[in-house]
Amino acid sequence: MKKWIFLAMMLGVMAVIFVLSAQPGEQSYALSAQLAQQLQQEDMAQAAPGWFSADFHANLRKWAHVWLYCLLGITAGLAACGFLYPGAGRPAKRLLRCAGAALAVCLLYAAGDELHQYFVPGRACLATDILVDALGFAPCVLAVCGLWHWLACRRARRRQTGDPNAG
Predict the structure, then answer these.
(1) CA 20 to chain CA centroid, nearest Å
(2) Pick from 5, 142, 12, 14: nearest CA to 77
């Protein structure tokens, strides 16, 4: 049952990304400019470190990519592990299969999102945005799949030792 909830969460994050990417350039720019102005007025401009540009607004837009794709990475990792981890085989191979599948889903979605933006007025298809997206999803996928693997191995060890708390 949990695996279907994880899949629904992942599809929900994908839908949010799609809707935001479907906004015409002017609308998207105005939304992020308004948020940037509000953050600067509240003296929260340091919330988005200037790693991408000296312009706070440009940084905010890139960090939005990172955080949205971080959510996608978390939910894709959960969905992949939910569907693929319980299978047969050594735990290390199951871990690689889950992480690989989640990373592939996120990378393909990021590439598809950029292709989608090519057809939206005022938006662009940028390969560099896929790399920025990967800064969000890759660490999150690896962390979620690694945690899932650690918990599964821990449960298996408890079962082998006869621990009544093994779940």
Answers:
(1) 15
(2) 142
